[in-house]
Amino acid sequence: MKYVAIIVLSLIWSVPSFAQHSHGSQKGPNGGQMEDVAGVDAELVTSGSTIMINIFDEGKKPISTKGFTGAALIVMGAGRETVTLAPSGENALKGEAKAPIAPGATLTLTIKTADGKSGQAKFKK
After folding, report:
1. What is the pTM of this model?
2. Which of 43, 71, 72, 116 could form a disulfide with 54 if both were Cys (CB 3.0 to 4.6 A apart)?
């Protein structure tokens, strides 16, 4: 009986993490990967060393990033770099890595919204 309780509790605790990252391989309006993070939809778009995170609501309407903060941890092979993301334009967070972001890199996004919600999402380039 003890083992059943442990299994049930672990399933209950894991459900919120599945719910936060429900988009998986969905493409966003700009062709980037989409993930749920901190109650918003975040779309990752990279070009060279530029990281752009476009922010949308569930209906894919742009949300203002005024008051948002963010960071991206980039892991490429044995190398790691943390890039600070700042609001850019109406609905984006933007930052510059030291080197171009190579295919196969993993980016872990951390954002905090203007109303104080925070969360993380992982993207594979």
Report:
1. 0.79
2. 43
C-alpha to C-alpha distance for 116 and 100, rounded to whole angstroms: 31
Domain 33-124 belongs to what topology? Immunoglobulin-like (2.60.40)
Q: What are phi and psi of 5, to 5 degrees?
A: -65, -40
Name residue 64's amino acid: S
Nearest to 109 by CA among 13, 23, 8, 9: 23
Per-residue pLDDT reduced to its tens digit, 34-70: 999 999 999 999 999 999 999 999 889 999 999 999 9
User: For residue 18, what is the enclosing H or E element?
Assistant: helix 2-20
DSSP secondary structure letters along 39-97: TEEEEEEEETTEEEEEEE-TTS-B---TT-EEEEEEEETTEEEEEEEEEETTTEEEEE-
